[in-house]
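Quick one, tokens below. Sequence please?
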């Protein structure tokens, strides 16, 4: 059953910053599920609408919405994968064809397309915004109780594959977010030691 989300806030409505310990608990134990373990059922149409709505709540300098979504599911996803497989086979690249399992197995894929809009905001920041959309979509799917994984692989970067997906000049694939019901729970992986990644700027340097 779809999660009951609050209604969308009205433009200019005050949104108080309040503690959300349940979000912190979620982040502390968040783990992506392997794409190859994702099975049906995936999100319903209503749940997908909710996930996409949540995904747009990502940082976006200039309020440009420099990204868009391409939904891959059902027969359309199978046809997309088949065209990618034919492309790989036309090149004699069996390894590339074999990598399509991550795309074909999950019931739902959302391609997040980075689509820079205006020159007055640095393109780099607009690309980062698309990455933030991927992250937010991934987290929203997991919080909804589905398994999810953010991948790219060769068909995110190959010009002919991008043409099959329908990208326009200047657009890039920020990621394919794959969603479904995990056949097995993901296991925790090794995490970085934060202390080794942190420094404090010293004005005396």
């Amino acid at each position: 059953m779809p999660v009951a989300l609050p209604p969308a806030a009205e433009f200019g409505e005050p949104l108080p910053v309040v503690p959300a310990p349940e979000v912190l608990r979620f982040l502390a134990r968040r783990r992506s599920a392997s794409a190859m373990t994702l099975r049906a059922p995936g999100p319903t149409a209503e749940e997908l609408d909710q996930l996409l709505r949540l995904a747009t709540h990502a940082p976006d300098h200039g309020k440009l919405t420099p990204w868009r979504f391409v939904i891959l599911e059902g027969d359309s996803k199978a046809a997309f994968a088949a065209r990618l497989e034919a492309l790989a086979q036309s090149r004699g690249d069996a390894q590339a064809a074999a990598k399509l399992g991550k795309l074909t197995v999950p019931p739902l894929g959302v391609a997040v397309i980075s689509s820079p809009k205006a020159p007055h905001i640095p393109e780099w920041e607009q690309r980062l915004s698309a990455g933030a959309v991927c992250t937010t979509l991934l987290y929203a799917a997991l919080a909804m109780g589905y398994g999810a994984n953010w991948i790219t692989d060769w068909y995110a970067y190959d010009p002919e594959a991008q043409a099959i997906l329908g990208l326009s000049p200047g657009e890039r694939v920020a990621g394919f977010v794959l969603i479904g019901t995990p056949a097995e729970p993901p296991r925790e992986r090794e995490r970085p030691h934060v202390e080794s990644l942190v420094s404090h700027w010293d004005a005396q340097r």
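The chain has one domain: 33-184. The CA atoms of residues 3 and 144 lie 7 Å apart.
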